[in-house]
Amino acid sequence: MVETGHFALVLALALSMVQAIVPIAGSHRNDARLMAVGGPAAVTAFALVAVSFAALVVAYAQSDFSVLNVVENSHSQKPFIYKLTGAWGNHEGSMLLWVLILTFFGALVAAFGRNLPPTLKANVIAVQGMIGVAFLLFIVLTSNPFTRLLPAPMEGQDLNPVLQDIGLAIHPPLLYLGYVGFSVCFAFAVAALIEGRIDAAWARWVRPWTLAAWMFLTGGIAMGSYWAYYELGWGGYWFWDPVENASFMPWLAGTALLHSAIVMEKRSALKIWTLLLAILTFSLSLLGTFLVRSGVLTSVHAFATDPTRGVFILGILVIFIGGSLTLFALRAQSLTAGGLFQPISREGALVLNNLFLTTATATVFVGTLYPLFVEAVFGDKISVGAPFFNLTFGPLMLPLLAIVPFGPLLAWKRGDLAGAGQRLLAAFGAALLTVLAVLLFVDSASVLAALGTGLAVWVMLGAVTDLALKAGWPRVSAAVGVRRLAGLPRSVFGTALAHFGLGVTLLGIVGVGAFEQEAIHSSKPGDRIEIAGYALTFQGINQVAGPNYVEDQGHFALSRGDAALGTIMSSKRLYTARGMPTTEAGIRTLGVSQLYVSLGDPGEDGSIVVRVWWKPLVTLIWGGALAMMIAGAISLSDRRLRVGAPSKRWKQPTVVAAE
Amino acid sequence: MTRKQKRLAVIGGGIGFLALATALVFVALGQQASYFFMPADLKAATLAPGQRIRLGGLVEKGTVVRGQGTEVTFAVTDTEESVKVVYAGILPDLFREEQGVITEGSFGTDGVFRADSVLAKHDETYMPKEVADGLKEKGVWNPN
Question: Which of 2.60.40.1600, 3.40.190.10, 2.40.50.140, 2.30.30.240 is the CATH number of B35-137?
């Protein structure tokens, strides 16, 4: 089985080479038979990588310790679900997952691209094939997960306990679906450059892929954030860690792409810019892969550091980013510029959105890479952390959030800012009242916290206003309004929900940032810790044996006033195979807020350090992200996109030769 | 406005925007980037009072003292020099004597380093990179 997996992988590499070369040659010679090779090659490559991936998962499921990768990352006593997820909880396996998803998207293009012009389809599939070749070569040459180990040991070294969590089943696949999903947009962009033509129909084909990738990336980042929050035991949801930034940069650029593609689809404007964004977004995904997988950074994600791997990925990075940008520089001139619009218009608002988002991406880029640059050039070791990003990213995001509600209310081509402002008056009033209410009624609220809360309310109500206006409210009766609402295209709901979710996330961030409370207490059984109106009574610690760990469980009785609210359990585990301790925080959700209890070290007098946080509104951070993800799915189900990219009926009026 | 003027306006606006962002970035990097030191490097360094740095090295054997309440003191060493560190809070799971550690904070007037965060390694095979590099330079690197 293991050899089958290895063999399938090499076969997939060979097939990807065919996929990378033959269709593009076909489109060059206008040979339909050669172009037709692309589709089946892409589908078969996916099937082969799937076989290979399945072989690795089976090796993990069976605890086959004759495979080096399994020995290094598994253990016979490990719970079954973590045996499966452990298959991608290591460098080799996670690269295989990366390629699996890449070939999956290639196969999807082949399957759903029936309406695509044959040359465009051939080129897109070929570019996907090239990416596949690069990464399959990387796996086969430097990161083979199927290496055997002789003689096989009796027992494995177990997976890093931090990764033994359900988060590993969700976070990497979602994140990769996002990261790698942008490869399709990239392939479309490069194909358009190869052909030297791009039009509104192109944007219509690219938009659903962007939307899907963006949706998964949103989910992946949010899941990673929540995982870090509950697993690392100190209750932070975002650390501006370089590895987090690596996934955040493609998200920011992808969000910009999502918006500029709308302008291109509807108004035929911003073509060259959209193309460039598509290239940049995937380039940032590749950069993220490089940062995380090469070992230049140290983090939970950097599994193993082997210099040849770093150099190999750097090579891939240079070839794809350099190649596509060179192609862009050579060909972008031949693409015609699009329609005209006034600065105050939907297009203008979306341009502003792009300006803010790309600049924000650039600041994150600088903050992430500057330490690497300084170390390489000056030899100094510095770190750039949260204060830097608060000072740069923050000021860029706040004005963007403030203008979000205006965008959807402006008309295409020439908008009426005063009119939009007038219609947003109610939302603005409510936001203002929120600011006042927070200042007056919440203890220890700073002006900044009040303004932040108001901004969040403004973004949320702006989205509601947009929907209400589109339903005809307040001019029409409720019944007519509901009927109109039902008749709106789903993408309108998608937009409104995504913007609403953004406001919700912001509210959560402001809530935790401004109103978090913390209590550190050296506790003995019977001690009370009071926080945010709640009281925790420490009941003591007992030891419990888990499947592959022993656990010290601390129990706390929670109460508010006279009402008992049950108990919270927080523990420290010692994973026996690696002798590695982890902290399992005790978390109790109360409304949308949470109490977070973490155990520290025992003192000499038999007491134990207990750290408790009150995290107001914290769940909204991920709730908002979930809303954005659902919004993406709703937009994706819009009829225009579901029917698939433009059918023949659409093509006639929209396709304009660009020359 | 003609097309050309409009394009100029857009490009001008974009450049102004970028300039503003660049200025922000430079100011922030100047103020907020914190440098990494090993204890022996500190002699040659001139630090402004209260300047945030990251101090890395090994936790010296026998120096970890859990004081009253939540305060912990320990010494960070690079085998040449050692620096006393005070930290109030929960130490990371993998904090141990003779293991690599990075602390972030600033020196008080009494010469004691007050850390507000302590980072240890993520798993038992990994040492913070800066510490590993620093130990290698001093020739006292011991991978086990």
Answer: 2.40.50.140
